[in-house]
From TrEMBL:
Cross-referenced InterPro entries: Endo/exonu/phosph_ase_sf, Endo/exonuclease/phosphatase
Keywords (A to Z) from UniProt: Signal
Source organism, top-level taxon: Eukaryota
Protein name (Swiss-Prot/TrEMBL): Endonuclease/exonuclease/phosphatase domain-containing protein
The keyword Phosphoprotein is annotated on this UniProt entry: no
The keyword Signal is annotated on this UniProt entry: yes
Domain Endonuclease/exonuclease/phosphatase: 21-303
Gene3D superfamilies, A to Z: Endonuclease/exonuclease/phosphatase
One MF annotation (Gene Ontology) recorded for this entry: catalytic activity
Length: 375
């Protein structure tokens, strides 16, 4: 019996903290002066372990950020080189051959230095069009069907289809089934509020609507993921956690007289044996001067970033509930099309600042192509 005690202490000793940041970098810093430097500086101030990026405008954005962040940082972006949009930065080790993408996001597995732990990490940026809160504040909108038409359009892919594509992705399903050993984190800009936020209690603050926004609901119901912020702060009235917007306070048309609705649209979801200990929106420490006078702001984005700190607990042997099928009401004709992952296969590179200085970058093997993740 006594012999077991040092072993237990040893197990406890392997647990460590994990700080995750999701950061929409607003056209890659183009809307403030020296935007790229400011993005890097804000990441350094937060000092996260992993960052989910959105609005990576071109492939050299991740290269430049890793160069600015310093030696131990590396990154990957979505392999769509026309507009990568999503990317991941970390000061730990990106595991080659683990890149996977969907149309609106991408994933790599990360080995946490100084531990035996790995995480499966997704950065997502769902479609920005037909922004739901605008419908809710439009007095000509009087049925939920009209709002849902924006989330789940029949003529193109919307946020419902984007999320259904993620939760039905075979790699994602495999990751969830192993999340008791390798936690899964889905972070990003969903461009839509949470189904846990627009409740009866705060109807008055939401244009008179309580509404079950579907993207977060699909993620929670189907994959059993939890929203780290809402878990720690369950009352949306007391803790709205607004992330939109830092500087977009009034619409440019009508001479900035019409206010922009404020919402929490950036999220850090997780599944696995780790426990969030703090979670908060973040926009630096300086003043946030609204559009159109934002150019001198130290904070380079029109979103707040979101940060969640996890306590990384020992591996669990508990069985994992598998991913459940998506509620049929979220599948329309265009949704079925989205289930067949449309994006062609492509290669992604791990971009390492120190290697890049010498004019080359580490290439992922063919295993990194879509649909062939090592299980
Ligand atoms: C990245 O850095 C290179 C070299 O300084 C520069 O030419 C390029 O414009 C930068 N790209 C972005 C997106 O800032
Ligand atoms: C970078 O990583 C090396 C090797 O893991 C470590 O010795 C060093 O302290 C790290 N540097 C920084 C700035 O974190
Ligand atoms: C890459 O992204 C652009 C812009 O979103 C899109 O139009 C294009 O279809 C994408 N390319 C591929 C190969 O998916």
């Amino acid at each position: 019996m006594i012999l077991f005690i040092p072993y237990l202490i040893c197990l406890v000793g392997t647990s460590s903290a994990l700080k995750v940041m999701t950061f929409n970098i607003w056209l890659s810093g183009a809307e403030v002066t020296n935007g790229m430097e400011k993005i890097a500086k804000q990441i350094q101030n937060v000092n996260p372990d992993v960052v989910a990026l959105q609005e990576v405008e071109s492939p050299d954005v991740v290269t430049n950020l890793t160069l600015l962040l310093g030696d131990n940082w590396s990154g990957v972006h979505h392999c769509n080189s026309t507009y990568p949009d999503t990317g991941i930065l970390t000061k730990h080790t990106i595991i080659p051959g683990t890149y996977v993408h969907v149309d609106y996001g991408m994933h790599v597995k990360i080995q946490l230095l100084d531990t035996k732990r790995q995480i499966s990490f997704w950065s997502m940026h769902l479609d920005y069009r037909s922004y739901g809160p605008y419908a809710c504040y439009n007095k000509l909108v009087n049925s939920e069907k009209q709002i849902m038409a924006g989330e789940m359009p029949t003529t193109c892919t919307g946020r419902v289809q984007n999320m259904v594509q993620l939760v039905t992705n075979q790699n994602f399903i495999n990751q969830i089934s192993k999340s008791n050993v390798v936690p899964v984190i889905v972070a990003g800009d969903f461009n839509v509020p949470s189904d846990e936020d627009w409740t009866e209690a705060n109807r008055a603050e939401h244009g008179g609507w309580a509404f079950e926004w579907p993207a977060t609901k699909i993620l929670r119901d189907s994959s059993g993921m939890k929203d780290s912020f809402r878990e720690l702060h369950p009352d949306p009235l007391a803790d709205p956690g607004i992330t939109w917007s830092t500087v977009n306070k009034f619409e440019k048309e009508w001479d900035y007289t019409i206010p922009e609705p404020e919402d929490r649209i950036d999220f850090i979801f997780y599944r696995g044996p780790l426990r969030p200990t703090s979670s908060f929106p973040y926009a630096g420490t300086g003043p946030l001067t609204p559009i159109p006078h934002q150019w001198g702001n130290e904070w380079p984005s029109d979103h707040y970033a979101f940060i969640t700190e996890f306590q990384d607990l020992p591996v669990s042997d508990d069985p994992v509930d598998p991913v459940k099928s998506v509620d049929r009401k979220y599948i329309n004709r265009h949704g079925r099309d989205a289930l067949r992952v449309a994006t062609p296969q492509c290669n992604a590179e791990i971009i390492d600042g120190s290697e890049e200085r010498q004019g080359r970058s580490l290439s992922l093997s063919g295993e990194g192509q879509h649909g062939s993740e090592v299980k």
